Structure formats: C-alpha cells, structure tokens
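Appendix B. Raw example, untouched.
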Amino acid sequence: MQSLLVKDYLNPHPVKFTPEMAIEEASELITKTNELGGPVIGKNSELVGFLSESDILAKMLETSYYSEHVSSVEQLMRTEVLSVKPYDSIVELAQMMLQAKPKVYPVVDDDGQLCGTICRNDVLRAIDSHIRSSFHVTTKTG
C-alpha cells in the first residue's frame, strides 16, 4: 500500500480563493462546490493560506450578529497551513489525518505551487480501492 501516492487521488481542480476576495464571494464558492475549504493562492499560484468553511461560518455569524462589514479572505485565512507533496504516501497521510489535523490538505510541488487538494474522502477512496483490488486478485488466483 506504500505505492499509493497523493498525486493519484488528489482533486486537481479544488475551490481556490485569493487574498483580496470578499468573504461573501468565498462563501458562495464553498456552498456551490460543497467543499470543506480551500487553498488561498497568490498571484503566481503559490499557496499563501487556507480558508475553511468553519472560518467563513464563524465570520458570517459574527457579521450577522453585529451587523458589521464582512472582511476579505486575507483577514480570515490561516497562514500556517499543513500541506503535502504529490509524491507523499496515502498511507502516511491517512495516519496524519487520524490525529486532530485538517480534513483537507493542499498539495504543493517542491516550488510551493498548488497542484490540488486531498481530503479524507479521497484518502478513504484510495485505500478502499486498493483493498478491493487486492481482495479481487487474491480470490481469483486462490
């Protein structure tokens, strides 16, 4: 199972945000895509942060309660982001995900360029597919 790599199961077209994007626009993107969050990318497609649906929800609740102006993505995004590489092992990522870690990880290359995202469901699908194919091969030959 160590041969299962992130690059084979990542979402190459995740929801993405820019730092200057308004939270209302980010909220609309999240609700349309049903994703749990997404990377914030700079002008050169480099990862600069991450914005989750819970970050947006918290700000939207605060805004509605205090009747304040909603901020930009840059004001809400997390800048300390755990990311993975395309060549990382799915098994190692699954072990990381069992801890109290994010549900969605940006996937970046060695230059910090965004390749996509990978979530718990993608990891589960990879492991499930591997187990099913291993079981299928074993029962045919055995």
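End of appendix B.
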